[in-house]
Design goal:
The structure is a single chain. By secondary structure, the protein is mainly α. The chain has a domain at 1-36. The chain has helices spanning 2-36, 53-73, 94-118, and strands spanning 78-79, 82-83. Strands 1-2 form a two-stranded antiparallel sheet. A hairpin with a 2-residue loop joins strand 1 (78-79) and strand 2 (82-83). The radius of gyration is 31 Å and the shape is flat.
Length: 119
């Protein structure tokens, strides 16, 4: 019977050493991840907030009103006797869009070609 108890005691000690080793490895991994900036968020164990549909229906108009008041505050103000209007939005011509798209495709083709050469 003592042989069995010795075996169980030895297995428990082995398990304890393995757990300590795993904890050390986890600490090393988290240290490396924090250097890289790719580590998991510490709040990942936090439960997500569930909001009912009724609450969302109440929140939507309140948020719209909040944004409306912000926009209202940023309206042009009177400077002297004239108002200073915000500059008009500029639109891009179709040919300019095509040129930009072609340039971007060329950039990506260059990147892919470099990746192929590196591989």
């Amino acid at each position: 019977m003592s042989n069995l108890q010795n075996a169980v005691q030895e297995l428990r000690e082995k398990r304890k050493r393995a757990q300590i080793e795993i904890e050390k490895l986890d600490q090393i991994i988290s240290g490396i991840e924090s250097l890289d900036g790719t580590g998991a968020d510490h709040d990942s164990n936090r439960p997500t907030r569930i909001i009912s549909a009724a609450s969302r229906r109440k929140m939507a108009p309140a948020q719209k009103a909040q944004w409306a008041s912000i926009r209202k505050q940023s309206q042009p103000t009177l400077v002297g006797k004239t108002t200073v209007a915000a500059p008009a939005k500029r639109t891009m011509s179709a040919s300019a869009r095509r040129k930009i798209a072609a340039a971007q495709k060329a950039r990506w083709a260059k990147v892919r070609a470099q990746e192929k050469q590196a591989a």
